[in-house]
Specification:
The complex is a heterotetramer, with 2 copies of chain A (about 150 residues) and 2 copies of chain B (about 375 residues).
Chain A (H helix, E strand, L loop, with lengths): L3 H8 L12 E6 L6 E9 L2 E10 L2 H14 L4 H4 L4 H7 L8 H22 L26
Antiparallel strand pairs in A: 1-2, 2-3
Helix pairs in contact in A: 1-2, 2-5, 4-5
Chain B lengths: L4 E2 L10 H7 L1 H4 L10 H21 L6 E4 L2 H15 L6 E5 L4 H11 L4 E5 L9 H7 L4 E5 L13 H11 L2 E5 L11 H4 L3 E5 L10 E5 L14 H4 L7 H16 L1 H22 L3 E3 L10 E6 L4 H10 L2 E2 L5 H4 L6 H5 L4 H5 L1 E5 L6 H21 L6
Helix pairs in contact in B: 1-10, 3-10, 4-5, 11-16, 12-16
The chains are: A alpha+beta (about 150), B alpha/beta (about 375).
The structure holds pyridoxal-5'-phosphate (2 copies) and FE2/S2 (inorganic) cluster (2 copies).
One FE2/S2 (inorganic) cluster binds next to helix 2 of chain A.
Organism (chains A, D): Paramaledivibacter caminithermalis (strain DSM 15212 / CIP 107654 / DViRD3)
Protein name (chains A, D): Nitrogen fixation protein NifU
InterPro entries (chains A, D): NIF_FeS_clus_asmbl_NifU-like, NIF_FeS_clus_asmbl_NifU_N
């Protein structure tokens, strides 16, 4: 079902944890199914020097959190804001169709953390001008059967 | 090879060797069509008759009241649509519960779109229906009550005999989905007084793709699958003789070994339940503490999500299942866990481990040990958990 | 052991060894439920995907257009009821033929009792429908045409492509029962242009109790069996993995060996037809002389009755079938033989012998030899025969 | 499906044939399914000294014809007229339920032949007083499936 990369990031997730006194924190989730993703950023001179996450969700949610943090670590905030869920999916060698939406959660969590950083620092990040923090980005589609 | 521990017997079972042995001649030796009058056909017909007798005997029915189907779901569909359409002149109201299998619930929803009215009974925190609510729900237009015998997720056993009495008194047909009951608790249809009861072979160490339904003599029902005159003109289609033979054998074995089977799985079930309760915090046993499937263990682990739990268990070779929304294929977590009053968040962290004849004490020890580590690891990752 | 010659391949086939070999691991090793996310489940799911691909490839469809069922009859029921109920807002008229399998005819009759109107097209003496009559039968309210590909009794092959063109032009769905066609004539659903086509595994040396339906992308259809989300939510029920694996393998073999298979059975068919014609008086070949199933032989023997003929053949080890009223279980002889214009008396003496991969030249010689004696013996007993 | 006795009488039917210048001939049948049974009697001094049959019908029809002729051969016409289809079925060790009606055909054929004999000889056979020759005694019930 999941690619090897997904399973690797699920079993050995990178950057799990919290950052005390983080420069930006984003939390997104889906009230309905209860999945929650929280991302912490440390930003120095416009560069993301550290990032951590905590996720309550499926294997795909955990793996995409892990991959998303890897993809933005060491990047500038301008680069980080361009992270798309597709990029995360690709970096993980794909996700099963009904699990693609979990990667959206990861993208949104990164954006939420960047937005929080921008708010705290009173700056505007290009690409986040129109950003409205949304909690509910998670919907489920088609799926497999049941016994 | 890597250790592999199967604890998903309520999803499906491996076939027993005796079952496969019994089936083997029917694949390419005695392969005839049971409707043919030549010797190949007669061999098939004989095997069919024996299997039917075995199923009948297993549940105390007459052989002429047993009809084979292509599985448990087909039988559920048949029971409900068949009764609904055959009796719509009498009324159009059906009563079922909120914790039925989807093969019952989705049929009821389909019927609602086609002129029928359906009452979905509540269940209490243990998954038990309320007989008073049932009585009150019955109207002049009620034609069918369908309440499952044993729930497939949380294992709760309903008071079937009492329901049958109520149904009988009101002159309403009573169907019970006994897919999880057969081979796990004693069944006698006459003593229970039900009108329709269905089964699935692959839940009792028989082959997949075969089921059966008990239809009490005199019950008015339409076929679901029309065509040839098989199954006394009630279920068309060339009979799956090897499958039916295997199902018959599996049912026979299940009844012969019933006491030992129950004793074995119940002991391991209780060991697993205790092991989890004693070693892991923030857990909740779902289902009824005593009126429960002897092999069913269903827990919620707070702060973590079921699919992550399943995947982690799978990595150490343990096979279980979950009612989490993330594994359900629909927007919501298990309707059963919702019906017993769990919040979305709690239901999310559910794990079902179901025990069978091939489960050992060591398996249970291994599971408990690994579960402790895995739950802890996932909780460490969870934004909801504060230690 | 007594000689046993099976000439009833259109009733059912023995499973090929390669098919059984492929199925074996799925009974008690890779026995998981394909919906489970653990490794046992994933093994099952992989097998399911491979089988689906094989069926798709065998008929030129996309894998996502193939849905497994519990047999050919279920698939016929699904196609017709599923289209009828899903499209009743568009119309309530269905067109079929008088020589369809009962799994089509009895569904149509059921629908007639439930507000649908059905036209049953005639066939000529060879069992062919008339395309002009078809065209004329189509009205504004027509939603479905269901015409079988190859008839199971007399072997006649219908002009499926031409029918599909007519259906397409009129914007009507076209279903064809291809249970007897698969593995006996080349099939390409895209080239033929049909919307729905169904199959049965046990007619092509695969296991019993498994079938499949091709549903062209975009076709609007309701499920027949509601419940779990299997088969992309269109056909509920735990998948019969061993059965499906066997069916997939059987379809693959059928396509790989198609030319050799056809050549083999056609040669023997023609030998048997000639042998009967040249040695026995008062016989009549039923079905089309050329547009016919390569393994189908169907004769009427005047003055004698089919069951007697079958029993006598069975006593010398030959397995065949008949459309006689005495074997039909209903008051009438085969509806197919009636539709091609036979009298009751003539239809009574029908014999179908269907040839398959395991039939040999010697078998045919043996059959002809015995048939001569048996027909003579029965005619001597017949009050209708004057020599 | 059939008992050994049925198969024996089907494969080795007793008394097949015709009797030239028979004292009584009875033919019954079912117009619908086309089964026909014809029975010839030779009667001497009220005793059935010879009997033959010809049958166009299923295995059960042939076996019951054979058995019925055996059961009345050598009997008086008074005894023969009492022959019931149940007696024939019993003598054959039973018939499958959907085939019981074929035995009715045999009973009727015997009665028809006796009636013919009575007519020709202008006598009344006790038990046949109210007999009306019927051709259509054959109906089919439930049955097996089909492929
Ligand atoms: C033409 C045709 N359609 C449908 C069927 C039904 O298939 P099954 O026996 O798998 O239900 C058969 C044979 O039984 C058939 O020959
Ligand atoms: C309670 C219950 N009913 C019905 C079914 C459906 O049976 P099948 O998978 O054989 O269609 C199942 C399991 O799948 C079940 O657990
Ligand atoms: S988090 Fe719910 S499906 Fe991935
Ligand atoms: S004669 Fe027709 S069934 Fe016996």
């Amino acid at each position: 079902m999941y690619s090897e990369k997904v399973m690797d990031h699920f079993m050995n997730p990178r950057n799990v944890g919290e950052i005390e006194k983080a420069d930006g924190v984003g939390e997104v989730g889906n009230a309905k199914c209860g999945d929650i993703m929280k991302i912490y950023l440390k930003v120095d001179d416009g560069i993301i020097t550290d990032v951590k996450f905590k996720t309550f969700g499926c294997g795909s949610a955990i793996a995409t959190s892990s991959m998303a943090t890897e993809l933005i670590k060491g990047k500038s905030i301008e680069e980080a804001v361009k992270l798309t869920n597709n990029a995360v999916v690709e970096a993980l060698d794909g996700l099963p169709k009904p699990k693609v939406h979990c990667s959206v959660l990861a993208e949104q969590a990164v954006k939420a953390a960047l937005y929080d950083y921008a708010q705290k620092n009173n700056i505007v990040i290009p690409g986040l001008e129109d950003y409205v923090p949304a909690k509910d980005v998670h919907d489920h589609h088609d799926g497999d059967g049941e016994e | 090879m890597k250790k592999r521990i199967y604890l998903d017997y309520s999803a499906t079972t491996p076939m027993k060797k005796e079952v496969l042995d019994e089936m083997m001649p029917y694949f390419n030796e005695k392969f005839g069509n049971a409707s043919s009058i030549h010797s190949f056909g007669r061999e098939a017909k004989e095997a069919l008759d024996i299997a039917r007798d075995r199923i009948a005997k297993a549940i105390g029915a007459a052989s002429s009241e047993i009809f084979f189907t292509g599985g448990g779901s087909e039988a559920d569909n048949w029971a409900i649509k068949g009764i609904a359409f055959a009796n719509k002149n009498k009324g159009s109201h059906i009563i079922t519960s909120k914790i039925e299998h989807h093969a019952v619930l989705h049929v009821c929803e389909y019927l609602e779109k086609n002129g029928f009215e359906v009452t979905y009974l509540d269940v209490d925190e243990y998954g038990m229906i309320d007989l008073e609510q049932l009585k009150e729900a019955i109207t002049d237009k009620t034609i069918l009550i369908s309440i499952m015998f044993v729930n497939n997720e949380i294992g709760t056993i309903q008071p079937i005999k009492e329901i049958a009495e109520i149904a009988k008194e009101k002159g309403v047909y009573f169907h019970t989905d006994a897919v999880q009951a057969l081979g796990n608790i004693p069944i006698d249809v006459k003593e229970l007084g039900v009108d329709l009861m269905n089964f699935s072979s692959h839940k009792i160490y028989g082959p997949k793709g075969v089921g059966a339904i008990y239809i009490k003599k005199g019950v008015k029902i339409h076929p679901l699958i029309h065509g040839g005159a098989q199954e006394r003109k009630r279920r068309a289609g060339t009979e799956n003789i090897p499958g039916i033979v295997g199902f018959g054998k599996a049912a026979e074995l299940a009844i012969e070994n019933l006491d030992a089977h129950i004793a074995h799985i119940q002991k391991l079930r209780d060991k697993l339940i205790e092991g989890i309760k004693n070693n892991i915090d923030y857990v909740r046993l779902n289902g009824h503490p005593t009126k429960r499937h002897p092999g069913n263990v269903n827990f919620c682990f707070e702060f973590i999500e079921g699919e992550s739990l399943l995947l982690s268990l799978d990595m150490v070779g343990i096979a279980g299942s979950s009612g989490s929304a993330c594994t359900s294929g629909s927007l919501d977590p298990s309707h059963v866990l919702m019906a017993i009053g769990l919040t979305h968040e709690i239901a999310h962290g559910s794990l079902r481990l179901t025990i069978g004849d091939f489960t050992t004490e060591e398996d249970i020890d291994y599971v408990i040990e690994n579960l402790i580590t895995i739950v802890d690891r996932l909780r460490q990752m969870s934004p909801l958990y504060e230690k």
